[in-house]
Design brief:
Helix content is 71%, strand content 0%. The protein is built from 5 helices and no strands. Helix 3 crosses helix 5. The radius of gyration is 12 Å and the shape is globular. The mean pLDDT is 93.
């Protein structure tokens, strides 16, 4: 994974609560993709975290790298 540990760890802290809530089943029942679930979790984080995090991460990662990190965190495919 290309993402630096400090950015991955910050992402884990921000999205962990959303992953635990069990909304994944709702997404599956609605016919939504795993990728949609992962990215909705990321976009549901506070902008005060998300904006500076994206500013730093996009300097060396693209969406594929971010999605790899999100897959690892959420355990989805």
């Amino acid at each position: 994974m290309k993402m630096q540990h400090k950015h991955f760890d910050a992402l884990v802290l921000q999205v962990a609560a959303s992953v635990i809530t069990g909304r994944y089943e709702e997404y599956k029942q609605a016919g939504l993709s795993d990728k949609r679930y992962r990215w909705d979790i990321l976009w549901s984080t506070p902008a005060s975290f998300r904006t500076p995090w994206f500013d730093e991460v996009y300097q060396y990662c693209n969406d594929d790298h971010i999605d790899t990190a999100l897959r690892k965190i959420t355990g989805t495919k």
